[in-house]
Amino acid sequence: METPLLIFNENGIYCKEANVYLDPWHPVDRAIITHGHADHSRWGNKEYITHTTNVPIIKHRLGEIVVHGKEYNEKFVVNNVTFSLHPAGHIIGSSQVRVEHKGEVWVFTGDYKIENDGVATPYEPVKCHTFITECTFGIPPFKWVPQEQVFKNINQWWANNREEGKTSVLFGYSLGKAQRLLKYLDTSIGKIYTHGAIENMTEVLRPQVLFPPTTLITRDTKKKELIGNIVLAPPSAHGSTWIRKMVPFVTASASGWMAFRGARRRRAIDKGFVLSDHCDWEGLLKAIESTGAEKIIATHGYTEIFSRYLRDQGYDARTEQTQFEGEMNELNTEPEEKPAP
């Protein structure tokens, strides 16, 4: 039997013909990286290839590395295998990887979403024979509302808290989610303060995106300065000593997992906003249909449920184990819990 163009082994997703890995989870000689989140871009590879806008991100996170930037749709050949990167719409600098050899085309999505968030380069469907897709939110109850409504709700929540003389603390990943939130916060309400992790990453990205001004919280920041304003912080800051100086404050989290019943309550979050950098159920199905692929490989998420549904629809679908997490650990939410209707 002929070896598939891409295989899954102990180090990651491997193209034997090119001797190249895609988002490996153990150090390898040459790695093509889809985006800057820690589960997809790990330290220790001898050589990295990624989109040009992701280069400063992974250098910020990983330090001195050998990295080569490629543009979207730019073809490059490694040992007679043709590769190209295409917009994934997940976060700034995120890519799908197209792999072509002897007329066979595979696409690895990394993480992706089809909604244009106005920050990341919008998702681009890529025709292929085999499509490797995440399915973090791959069950029917997950259905996102347009982000315009979500941000309207977030800004109204902030305005209400300001009227009550409270600080608004909004949690989101320091890379991707935080910048998406920052882009659409209404600065007519007040000032935007940031946790150091978010401030540092945002400074890396400011040359690429126009963001509103932010103020870094330091030891010298007074509680009275924060009252009525909003603070962007990573989820890890919740419950930390860092947050105590903000009393009285109200907390909220922006995550796809806020669709789960009890997720907000279990983490002692006052408010939840359903906002994800991944596809919902319908988004996944639309993306798959747009590729024209007959073979689908489902990774990280509701893989068994999702692949079984695809088989029922006539696709040649299967699952593969990876060490990618998507948003699975964002709030330590158990995937068996039922989403809210």
From TrEMBL:
Domain of life: Bacteria
Keywords attached to this entry: Exonuclease, Hydrolase, Ligase, Nuclease
Alphabetized GO MF terms: exonuclease activity; ligase activity
EC numbers: 3.1.-.-
Ligase recorded as keyword: yes
Protein name: Ligase-associated DNA damage response exonuclease
Source organism of the structure: Arenibacter arenosicollis
